[in-house]
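Subject: sequence -> C-alpha coordinates, single chain

Hey, anyone have a minute? Need the predicted structure for the following. Not urgent.
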Amino acid sequence: MVSAMVSIPRGERLQIMLTEDEYHALDLWRFSRHMPSRAAAVRELLRRGLSAEGFAVSDGTRKSSDFGLIGKSSAETDGRQP
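Reply:
Had a minute. Here:
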Protein backbone atom coordinates (compact mmCIF):
# COMPACT_ATOMS: atom_id res chain seq x y z
CA MET A 1 0.00 0.00 0.00
CA VAL A 2 1.40 3.39 -1.00
CA SER A 3 0.52 6.30 1.25
CA ALA A 4 0.06 9.79 -0.12
CA MET A 5 2.74 12.28 0.82
CA VAL A 6 1.40 15.24 2.80
CA SER A 7 2.74 18.46 1.35
CA ILE A 8 3.32 21.33 3.76
CA PRO A 9 3.55 24.65 1.93
CA ARG A 10 6.75 26.57 2.58
CA GLY A 11 6.38 30.29 1.87
CA GLU A 12 9.80 31.62 2.82
CA ARG A 13 13.32 30.53 2.00
CA LEU A 14 16.11 30.91 4.57
CA GLN A 15 19.75 30.44 3.70
CA ILE A 16 22.29 30.03 6.51
CA MET A 17 26.00 29.43 6.72
CA LEU A 18 27.28 26.80 9.15
CA THR A 19 30.73 26.03 10.42
CA GLU A 20 32.07 22.58 9.69
CA ASP A 21 31.44 21.60 13.34
CA GLU A 22 27.82 22.86 13.23
CA TYR A 23 27.22 21.03 9.95
CA HIS A 24 28.61 17.80 11.40
CA ALA A 25 26.56 18.18 14.61
CA LEU A 26 23.40 18.81 12.57
CA ASP A 27 23.95 15.66 10.52
CA LEU A 28 24.67 13.55 13.63
CA TRP A 29 21.50 14.84 15.29
CA ARG A 30 19.48 14.33 12.10
CA PHE A 31 20.65 10.76 11.50
CA SER A 32 20.21 9.75 15.15
CA ARG A 33 16.54 10.77 14.88
CA HIS A 34 15.96 9.44 11.35
CA MET A 35 15.02 12.88 10.03
CA PRO A 36 14.27 12.84 6.27
CA SER A 37 16.37 15.92 5.41
CA ARG A 38 18.65 18.61 6.80
CA ALA A 39 15.86 21.11 6.24
CA ALA A 40 13.47 19.03 8.36
CA ALA A 41 16.12 18.77 11.08
CA VAL A 42 16.72 22.52 11.08
CA ARG A 43 12.96 23.22 11.26
CA GLU A 44 12.61 20.81 14.19
CA LEU A 45 15.58 22.31 16.04
CA LEU A 46 14.22 25.82 15.43
CA ARG A 47 10.80 24.80 16.74
CA ARG A 48 12.37 23.20 19.83
CA GLY A 49 14.61 26.20 20.48
CA LEU A 50 11.74 28.66 20.19
CA SER A 51 9.55 26.52 22.44
CA ALA A 52 12.32 26.28 25.04
CA GLU A 53 12.49 30.10 25.09
CA GLY A 54 8.72 30.39 25.53
CA PHE A 55 7.81 31.21 21.93
CA ALA A 56 5.26 29.24 19.97
CA VAL A 57 5.49 28.81 16.23
CA SER A 58 3.22 31.41 14.64
CA ASP A 59 -0.20 30.33 13.46
CA GLY A 60 -0.12 33.06 10.79
CA THR A 61 -2.57 35.39 12.51
CA ARG A 62 -0.04 37.67 14.21
CA LYS A 63 1.84 40.57 12.63
CA SER A 64 5.56 41.20 12.99
CA SER A 65 4.73 44.32 15.02
CA ASP A 66 3.19 42.01 17.67
CA PHE A 67 6.71 40.76 18.41
CA GLY A 68 8.32 44.11 19.29
CA LEU A 69 10.98 44.36 21.96
CA ILE A 70 9.65 47.55 23.53
CA GLY A 71 6.13 48.33 24.58
CA LYS A 72 3.93 51.03 23.14
CA SER A 73 4.19 54.45 24.68
CA SER A 74 1.22 55.95 26.52
CA ALA A 75 0.84 58.42 23.62
CA GLU A 76 0.39 55.54 21.19
CA THR A 77 -2.08 53.65 23.37
CA ASP A 78 -4.38 56.65 23.95
CA GLY A 79 -4.31 57.80 20.31
CA ARG A 80 -2.08 60.89 20.71
CA GLN A 81 0.81 61.51 18.35
CA PRO A 82 4.27 61.62 20.03
